[in-house]
Amino acid sequence: MPEPSERRQGSRIDHADVPIVASPSGLSTQHLVSARDGAEGLFVAQQWLQPGDRVLLHTHPVEEAITFLSGSGEATLGEETLPIGVGVSLYIPAGEVHGFRCTEGTLHV
Questions:
Q1: Phi, psi (5° rounding) for residue 94?
Q2: How many other β-carbons are positioned within 10 Å of the β-carbon of residue 58?
Q3: What are the pLDDT digits (tens) for 37-69?
Q4: Does residue 102 contact residue 73 with C-beta atoms inside 8 Å?
C-alpha cells in the first residue's frame, strides 16, 4: 500500500467534457477513465453500436469487464458465442479472445 504522501487523489469526471473518438474498430467510443486521469491499471469507456456494428475479435494483457446497458447482440468469448443485452456483464480474463456485435437496437456498452 502506498505511503499516505504517495496516494493519488480521486477526481470527478463529467462525461459531457470527455470527447467521443473512434475506436480501433471504427466505433464511437468515450474514454471515461484512463491514464489521462492518473489510472494505472484501470480503463473505463462506453460505446454505442448499431445493428450490424461489431467490435472485432481481440485480446488484452489485463482482465476486462463489460456491461451492456441497452440493445442486444452476441459476444464471442474464446470459442463460445453468448447472447448479450440489458442486465448482462461479461468478465474476460487477460489474453482471452473476445468481441461482440449488435443485433437489435442501440447496444450501449
A1: -55, 135
A2: 10
A3: 888 888 899 999 999 999 999 998 888 999 999
A4: yes
